[in-house]
Specification:
Blueprint lengths: L1 H17 L6 E2 H10 L6 H14 L3 E5 L3 E5 L6 H13 L5 H12 L4 H8 L14 H15 L1 E10 L5 E3 L6 E11 L2 E8 L4 E6 L3 E10 L9 H8 L6 E10 L3 H8 L4 E6 L2 E10 L1 H8 L5 E5 L1 H14 L8
Helix pairs in contact: 1-3, 4-5
Length: 326
């Protein structure tokens, strides 16, 4: 019985690795493969092994032509699904080149060797930067454990000096965080939770967390009214600032841009024939002002007046010689 079980497992591996709809094999092919592995078998025995695999749940499809041909049909992932996952891993700026390659190899194990060639031969790379450090992967593992066990995690945070040297922020300050959830945004990974140091809900970049330590201290639970989608919307691309209701005068053609950023529930009213006014709850920050500036005058901040003044001051600092014009 043990020899038969081992043989069936070899048959399973051969079918999963070497066959697909376009590359079926015959019983003779399977017998030849087993012979190369030092296992003797005949057609009747192999047919019984295939029946056993099918009873176990392996989707072995048989094409009944001049001679029966077999291949694995239904897999964990369809080919387009695997392609999407592979491209996402390959392009990720969060994963190092080493971890990307490791994860890609694991994903390729869900396809046949023939499909592997299809999946990898036309991978496009836009030469985006990969991180040099491996700590983000370890940090992610500890954050997942902290969220699962509802424990607090503590760490230091990385920033960069003018010479591009990585240093610990605020002279190696230890941040104490009760993590609630992880968020992928703009090809970066973030953890959201309650920070003891800040005394409020804070968002940290996972790849900038250093020396994470999972503690035995119970985490502060998320408030009942915490809604992730609303939090993401309010901090506006992960930059924390004072949350204000901001009125924006926008060209009519930019409605899709406003909806993309603030959702379909954003308040809108008529301004003039070419513009509408949108009022959104926004975390006011340099990132927000930069976004407005990037619209080249198609979006204007019109209220509250102190936000208009702050935006003008920022423009003045960027163009000191032009301060007098504002």
């Amino acid at each position: 019985m043990g020899a038969k079980k081992n043989r069936a497992l070899y048959v399973k591996r051969y079918l999963e690795e070497q066959t697909d709809e376009n590359h079926p094999v015959t019983l003779a092919d399977i017998i030849d493969y087993l012979a190369g592995e030092g296992i003797t078998a005949n057609r009747k025995i192999i047919a019984q092994d295939i029946e056993q695999l099918m009873e176990y749940g392996v989707d072995v499809v048989c094409n009944r032509r001049r001679q029966n041909q077999y291949f694995v049909g239904d897999r964990h992932f369809e080919l387009p699904e695997l392609k999407l996952l592979l491209d996402a891993v390959h392009a990720s700026k969060f994963l190092s080149a080493k971890h990307s390659a490791k994860l890609i190899n694991k994903l390729l194990a869900f396809a046949s060797s023939h499909q592997n060639l299809e999946l990898t031969e036309d991978v496009y790379s836009d030469h985006r930067i990969k991180p040099k450090y491996e700590n983000a992967y370890i940090t992610l593992d500890k954050l997942i454990s902290a969220i699962r066990t509802r424990k607090r995690i503590q760490f230091m945070y990385i920033e960069y000096r003018q010479d591009k040297k990585r240093i610990y922020k605020h002279n190696r300050q230890v941040y104490k965080l009760s993590p609630w959830t992880l968020l992928w945004n703009d090809d970066k990974y973030y953890v959201i939770g309650y920070s003891e140091s800040h005394g409020k809900t804070v968002t940290f970049r996972v790849d900038r967390i250093a020396a994470p330590d999972l503690t035995n201290v119970d985490a502060v639970p998320a408030p009942e009214d915490f809604v992730l989608a609303e939090h993401v919307k309010s901090v506006f691309h992960m930059y924390d600032g004072e949350v204000r209701d901001i009125a924006l005068k926008c060209e009519n053609s930019l409605m899709k841009v406003i909806i993309d950023h603030f959702g379909e529930d954003v308040y809108r009213q008529f301004a003039d024939a070419g513009h509408f006014c949108a009022i959104a709850r926004i975390s006011v920050s340099k990132t927000f002002f930069s976004w407005v500036f990037g619209m080249d005058g198609a979006i204007e901040i019109i209220a509250p007046i102190e936000m208009v003044a702050e935006y003008r001051a920022m423009l003045g600092r960027a163009l000191p010689s032009a301060v007098g014009r504002f």
